Amino acid sequence: MDEKRNPVIFYSRGILLALMLLVSVFSGVAFSAEHASPGNTAVNPDFEPPCSSNGTCRELDACADAGLGRCRAFKGVSGLRRVLLGSFGTLGFRAQIVNAKSGKPVSLWHDVPLVISDNEKGFVVNAFFEISRGTLAKVELNKWEPHNPMWQDRKKVKNQSFKRPRYYAWSPAPGNYGALPRTWENVLEDDPITGFPGDTDPIDVIDVGSAPCPLGLVYQVKVIGALGMIDGTDLQTDWKIFVINIKDPKAKTINDISDVPRETKNRWGLFWRFYKTAKGLNENFFYDPESAKKVNADPVWLGAKEARKIVLSSAAAYQKLVGECLNRKVKKPYWISGCLP
After folding, report:
1. What are 190's strand-pairing partners?
2. Residue 20: its pLDDT value, please?
3. Helices H, strands E: what count in the chain?
4. Which residues contact 82 (CB under 8 A, 6 or more apart)?
5. Does residue 12 belong to any structural domain of this protein?
6. Which residues pair with residue 198 across a beta bridge?
7. DSSP-derived 3-state class of residue 247
8. Would you give the DSSP letter of residue 117?
């Protein structure tokens, strides 16, 4: 959060929210009969790593190095390719997207357009993907380095003076996971829907399609729903926008999150609620428009229309970010061409 926010208000709200959630726990709120009750951090993932049929994942598939448009299971953005630097699984690893002809670096956050089409057939956008379905490495866009390459997030080793690459400790990612270009979750203001400030990142996106994608791939997806996750430790809004790859065989029949199998939604709901407990942090919780408290211990799914509004709101926040150079006001300023710190 912004250092200038009133700490008394922040901590008071946190204490009040914790009490509200405890009340919900003892009032019978349940994820489902088969899952553990809120507050139980001993929950185990109920699925195996869902990689490709031959047991491998495609995070370093060379199709992305040759050209994003050559990855056959996806409609990759033409004219771009990926350059890998350093060894995957090390702190020096980087995956930089470049112009296929000139070789000049391209920022996935700032240089890729967001909206492809917005009509009766659906809201189709570009998305870039940091984590392949079934993998554990926590790869993400580097907001601070020039042209925003991807790197593996790092974690400080307790009682030591060095860091190590970060991996999911709770389970593999249940699907392709990334973000939307030219969007931003504003950490300097409360989210207009949830009432909690944003988490400082481009808005997250999850593909419910069947094909695991290469790291760094940019492809077209249809927006089908949203989940309003609230970080249980930082009390920040971290929207999860659910989409489907437009080239997925089921894309024509999946137009809303209600069309997605319950098993898929349960996997993601469990993941977002519990994944941080593996490293000793609090459970996350979720925005609930039907609750008087506006939060719920269990996932509350919003449909395609609501998700479209959330994406466009985050796109407007991004325009404010670059238009007013708000990156200079956050605790650790981002790299934005034209708004350098």
Report:
1. 197
2. 52
3. 4, 16
4. 64, 65, 68, 95, 96, 97, 98, 214, 215, 216, 217
5. yes
6. 237
7. coil
8. E
